[in-house]
Amino acid sequence: MENLYLNLLNIWMDVGLVVKTVIAILAFASLVSWIIIVRTFILGIIIRKNNKNFYLIYNEADSLKDVLEKSTSFPFSPFKQMFIEGYSELGRIKDCYKDENKRVVLLQGHFQSYGLIAIERALKKGAIDANAITDKYLSTLANIGSITPFIGIFGTVWGIIDNLRYVTSSSSTFAAVAPGIAESLVAAAFGLVVSIPAVWFYNNFSDTNLHLNSNMKGFGQQFLNVVERSLIISK
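RE: above sequence
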């Protein structure tokens, strides 16, 4: 391991300024990508736990108002975010009809005429807001995964050109500059080292988010069913 560190140090000292800059950029990109990976991984665990706990409360509650009161401790649950938007929109529709005695009849007439479209839009807004959190920085991770190999190749090509220029401008043989060319190839290898985990985790997180979106659609339909049943029961 000590020899490996010494070899890497020697390579770093021997390469040119441009290749050093490329390696420094790749090192920074690697740091950023791993910060995003760790952040997204931890957030995913918290979201799954929050969703599970919220769903238990949702299924066990006696009313939608009861759900609202008991779910204050799940700030990272997309289900809760959708529920808040849908419940709030339902409350705003109810507030449009001030007459307590006729409110139920008027609400039934409203939903019979217009359906549950307003609540559906509110649920979609909750899902969009939740996706803004789960998808945050994933585009950056994708860009790192797709761009860093080319940055590494640029560093390698530049290093090779620089070494070949040295051959043509002096009496040195190709064998004399071969080590320099080999050192330049480190930039391409480093680009792949940065890119591979970024691409893998991006695909993994994207699949997880697709599954989460499917679950959110199911929850939205379930919420609409609850609202519709409550209107039927009120008749």
